[in-house]
UniProtKB/TrEMBL annotation:
InterPro entries: Asp_de-COase-like_dom_sf, BFD-like_2Fe2S-bd_dom, BFD-like_2Fe2S-bd_dom_sf, CT_Nitrate-R-NapA-like, MoPterin_dinucl-bd_dom, Mopterin_OxRdtase, Mopterin_OxRdtase_4Fe-4S_dom, Prok_molybdopt-oxidoreductase
Sequence similarity: Belongs to the prokaryotic molybdopterin-containing oxidoreductase family. NasA/NapA/NarB subfamily.
Organism encoding this protein: Pseudaeromonas paramecii
Cofactor(s) demanded: [4Fe-4S] cluster; Mo-bis(molybdopterin guanine dinucleotide)
Keywords: 4Fe-4S, Iron, Iron-sulfur, Metal-binding, Molybdenum, Nitrate assimilation, Oxidoreductase
Listed name of the protein: Nitrate reductase
Lineage: Bacteria, Pseudomonadati, Pseudomonadota, Gammaproteobacteria, Aeromonadales
Amino acid sequence: MSQTTQTTCAYCGVGCGITIQDGAILAGNPEHPANKGALCIKGSSLLETMDYPRRLLYPRLEGRHLGWDGALDEIAARFNQIIAESGPEAIGFYVSGQLLTEDYYVANKLMKGFIGAANIDTNSRLCMSSAVMAHTRAFGEDVVPGCYEDLEQCDLLILVGANTAWTHPVIFRRIQQARAKRPQMKLVVVDPRKTMSAEQADLHLGLLPGTDVWLFNGLCRYLFEVGKVDEAYVRAHTQGLAELTTLLDDPAYELAAIAQTCGLNQTDLLAFYRWFAERPRTVTLFCQGVNQSNQGTDKGNSIINAHLLTGRVGKPGASPFSMTGQPNAMGGREVGGLATQLAAHMGFNETDCERVQRFWGSPRIATRSGHKAVQLFDAVRKGEVRALWVIATNPAISLPDSARVREALANCEFLIVSEMTDNTDTAKFAHLLLPAAGWGEREGTVTNSERCISRQRAFTAPPGEARPDWWALAEVGKRMGFAEAFDYPNTHAIWSEFAALTAFENDGVRQLNLGGLAALSAEEYDGLAPQQWPVLAGRSADARRLFGDGRFSTPDGKARLIATVPQAPVLEQEEGWLLNTGRLRDQWHTMTRTGHLPRLMEAEPYPRVTVNHHTLLQSGLEPGQLVHLSSPRGEVLARLERDDALADNEAFMPMHWSDSFTAAGGVNRLVAPVTDPVSGQPQFKQTRVLATPFNARWHGVWVGVHEPEWSFVPRWWSRRPVDGGECRLLADDACSRQELWQVLARKGQWLRLPLKGDGWVAVLLKQGRIHGLLLAGDSQWQLNTGLLAGLLKVPLSASALSATIEQALAGDTRMVCSCFRVSEKQIREAIEQQGIHELAGLQASLKCGTNCGTCVGELEKLLISCRVSYAE
Ligand SMILES: Nc1nc2c(c(=O)[nH]1)N[C@H]1C(S)=C(S)[C@@H](COP(=O)(O)OP(=O)(O)OC[C@H]3O[C@@H](n4cnc5c(=O)[nH]c(N)nc54)[C@H](O)[C@@H]3O)O[C@H]1N2
Ligand SMILES: Nc1nc2c(c(=O)[nH]1)N[C@H]1C(S)=C(S)[C@@H](COP(=O)(O)OP(=O)(O)OC[C@H]3O[C@@H](n4cnc5c(=O)[nH]c(N)nc54)[C@H](O)[C@@H]3O)O[C@H]1N2
Ligand code: SF4
Ligand SMILES: [Mo]
């Protein structure tokens, strides 16, 4: 009998519903309110990515397999001993917005209510904490007031520091569909880069990095000047007007001054301010260009100020809207996974501490905030935190200042890492590795950006001894002596307790109230349909929007206007390019989940740092050249390439590369641990870097059924999967090509053939079959590795070999449409040779851009660039 499972995507905060048929066929769930059937490339690849190349299957202590019993007893004993010797603050948890609400709840309860300190922080500190603080300051509670429908119903949508086309593709698609239906709706993108989202906007404001507070303060002043402030609303529902107007009196916020400070032209700026003033239905969606800043919280509040002044909060088509990054970033904020919250939207005041302690029946409760992520790792480095449990995150790559983080990981007395794979940069430091059950293998709930709770459901058993994270956490709790408090038979029991806590003595002061979901039967929990919170017991209410009536979660019910004083980014050196970091369309974070799928690597197969044409010319460096990038914190190697979406003297590098995929490509080696003073969120988006050439003596490409088997590691390499094996780009500045050949020749299995032009190809033969090909030459290859991979495992034939290599060398394979594997070359040919000059034509002939639609912007760009080159 066929079996259908309804679940939720494991990736971004859109929270798309997914249907799985018989564990083997995946599709978007047309009934899910977030996506109504649509999926992006990452979501549609989920089943394939479950096949991890190196899945962690058993608990492992110092490299030895041991059963769960041994592992859990070890943790409980070490924790109890450390607490006895150094107190509860010597234990730390570092968790993740990729945990399910149930996992997160148990982790938080164990740390704050039973270990009795608050040293649990999460990668949401790197992601959402500025938005959390901005909401808390303005509304008295961390609440996103709006819903996705607002993004379709507004007349002005402003994306600030958000490349939604790539990072929340299904939402972007909904926006584009709404614009097609409602031409009066304007889209403005505020981003120093002309991203794929900006390409498709009515107006792109390419402001100078870090000047957002100026821009929004200027907007607020403009609203006063043109009489568009809703005075009645402001009087009735806000506080802080006097401080804000005093600040805005400064002529520095006049239009002309703002244009200059933000590096914008006045016409564009005025157009934006006018649109805002004239369109009551305005949504401002913001993400990491706002949050990841030395003043991320102020940036958030400056946006919220403009919405409060115009009464545009929680109304249809009118709200500030913070998009969440990870699938359960919101759920983590609900349970209280940050070191600065207690639980369920309660803080560390005496009343909340007493209430939560009573609810949990806990022996000792944390009474003050713990270390925020960056400080937590400093405390580990200094030995103040002696044991650290890292769950579902890869801080060796994702925290700023990788050298310092690695020093902490290396110094930690007892490091536990719960993971799906042992092949992460963080797992390599672990004393104890715990195998986690992952997406599709575990049960629980997630909450998306619009407060919609949906179930993730299992459709397959975890392999080996992998177990869900909540189970490991609860077992440790029991073994530490808290048997009753952690005696959960399943996630339903955890859910019910969490939901009850949100409603406990909650007489309306906290919007987060799941009382109506606290008494679900096991069947009801299993069948839970997606729904937004609050869900009050005994009452059904429209939860789509909150605060629409102007009553907020502050003691006096009024929202707070914050007088946000602009600050410049904190930079450790004056000289160099201003490096911005962020995401690529097809990769997920540190690539542990997405880097092993050839399809997802094709659009961006090696680490690149990009600058615009002018900056490239000025640098004296060559496009395509390998460069050292350096900052006072460290050094990175990447290929330098041109991208005119960037402004002069600005550079961009993705955040995804790790030591598992390339030599020194992790961009956080360069980023300083500068944090926002209110939220503690790192300033990932601005770092000054210097570029110098990497003087390669040769460049190479390896295509093989496995990793290259030679004792020699070139200084630079970058690997990616290809069908049937892997491909590596190589370069070395120490030994010569001749010396390289000598290393290979010693093994005796290699056959060397000359290549046309310069260089040679060395063929690794085993029983007469090709196991690998190494091309080495003076210049870098732009070749079609897919063709070369076709030669693997076939018997050697010199003529076929040289013909294929020639063909491969002629080809360029940058993939534009990942869904249908359509390359830039194919698209250019279709435009130039078949004379196609419209998107629809490309879609009909090549199918590109017809599935998830995320490449549509790029297709349009290619259509234009080919047209321009015709004209030339
Ligand atoms: N494909 C993909 N999608 C993802 C993820 C992924 O790894 N891959 N991760 C998910 C997660 S956890 C998150 S948090 C989200 C992040 O989603 P986004 O925030 O949309 O993504 P980023 O690329 O980090 O940064 C957004 C933009 O901020 C801009 N920016 C930099 N500095 C400034 C500035 O000073 N002002 C302004 N206004 N903009 C600036 C950058 O140029 C960049 O285009 O994506 C989620 N979705
Ligand atoms: N320079 C720079 N740095 C950044 C950012 C940036 O824009 N620029 N963005 C920041 C942001 S917003 C974020 S969210 C972080 C993300 O950074 P990380 O959280 O470090 O990145 P991930 O690769 O998602 O790590 C999650 C890990 O959890 C594992 N995993 C998956 N599912 C499970 C599970 O169910 N249980 C367990 N135990 N493990 C699991 C995966 O294998 C993976 O290794 O990076 C931050 N760092
Ligand atoms: S938009 Fe986000 S939630 Fe939806 S399929 Fe893509 S990654 Fe998954
Ligand atoms: Mo994130």
